[in-house]
Amino acid sequence: MSLLSVTDLSLGFAGDRSFAHVLDGVNLSIGPGQIMGVVGESGCGKTTLARAILGVLPAHSTRIRGGGISFRGVDMLSPGASADLRGRAVTFVPQDPFSSLNPLFRIGDQIMDLMKFKSPRRKAGPVRFPLFAPYPRRRRKADRARLMEVLEQVQLPQPDRLLKKFPHEVSGGQRQRLMIAMALLPEPDLIIADEPTTALDVTIQAQILGLLRRLANDNGVAVMLTTHDLGSAYEICDAITVMYAGQDVEAAPIDEFFARPAHPYTNALLASLPSEDGSVSGIPGTVPSLTDAPAGCRFHPRCERATAECRTVRPGVTGDPDRHGVRCYHPVQPLGAAA
Ligand SMILES: Nc1ncnc2c1ncn2[C@@H]1O[C@H](COP(=O)(O)OP(=O)(O)OP(=O)(O)O)[C@@H](O)[C@H]1O
């Protein structure tokens, strides 16, 4: 059974004179405890998808055109229904940890402020006057004790000293470990990690990815990891969904994905990984503008296998969507009957 189901989600952003149709019929399913990699080039809509699930898209410009997001059976596009889940059952690890911490306050104070409202020991429900809400002493003590445990879990040394520091006094890797700790503290079922290692150097990237994998296993929490790097996804994910220009094109468990990549875009992406002799080859053509996206399969202008139908109607899912699904009329390898 799915923990999170994104079904045929289409949405975009209205500008002064144009409309960016960013997500076009996106499907994604994440099971309890599963690590799902959402992989795609810059601008393909990974962050937009993450923000849609978290319910933090800009209200004034976002237009939902169809589809839905269901988390534990709750409609996440309905602000009333999903408010209690955000930041508690679903939490977030950002791309840039520095911009998520206030430079003027000590780290410990910021985390305890978060715990005041997001602690799993706090009763769910709206707070009328958050500034004046009390933080009962017993709960505060329990939350602080749990914070110390979690800081140990994310391998941050001397947590007492660390909590007294300001954000600029700790390294980028330590800040990202803090972000992961903050995402774990509410005891969520799903963590959305949006390119969590982009701002870090390569050795620290590997440590952070390894940490996420271990914590997901130990805590039984599912992770949606957005990344442009298939290598990172390979390191820690159970399954991968590939996106291209706002469309999901292929999804499969990790072994199946690398053994039988079926969509021409996935194959092009794999072929563009650096080879053993160090050579790299790109994908010919450019990613389309989402204000004027091509009809049908959005990859067709760059696809050698494209035919007339690819240019008009987006293909449905071929194969078993629970095992290995591909949205292509001419997959590189056949996957069985259309769903
Ligand atoms: N609030 C917004 N208003 C208008 N356009 C937006 C908005 N947010 C995102 N976009 C556009 O949506 C497209 C997808 O952006 P998004 O950040 O989701 O991609 P991404 O795959 O996460 O890219 P990256 O890996 O570079 O973060 C881009 O063309 C971006 O300019």
TrEMBL record:
One of its GO terms (molecular function) is ATP hydrolysis activity. InterPro entries: AAA+_ATPase (IPR003593), ABC_Ni/Peptide_Import (IPR050388), ABC_transporter-like_ATP-bd (IPR003439), ABC_transporter-like_CS (IPR017871), Oligopep_ABC_C (IPR013563), P-loop_NTPase (IPR027417). The keyword Disulfide bond does not apply. SMART domains: AAA. Keywords: ATP-binding, Cell membrane, Membrane, Nucleotide-binding, Transport. It is a peripheral membrane protein. The keyword Transit peptide does not apply. SUPFAM superfamilies: P-loop containing nucleoside triphosphate hydrolases. It comes from the Bacteria. This is ABC transporter ATP-binding protein. The lineage of its organism: Bacteria, Pseudomonadati, Pseudomonadota, Alphaproteobacteria, Hyphomicrobiales. Pfam families: ABC_tran, oligo_HPY. CDD domains: ABC_NikE_OppD_transporters. It comes from Acuticoccus sediminis. PANTHER family: DIPEPTIDE TRANSPORT ATP-BINDING PROTEIN DPPD (PTHR43297:SF2), OLIGOPEPTIDE TRANSPORT ATP-BINDING PROTEIN APPD (PTHR43297). Residues 4-270 form the ABC transporter domain. It is found in: Cell inner membrane. GO terms for cellular component: plasma membrane. Its main location: membrane.
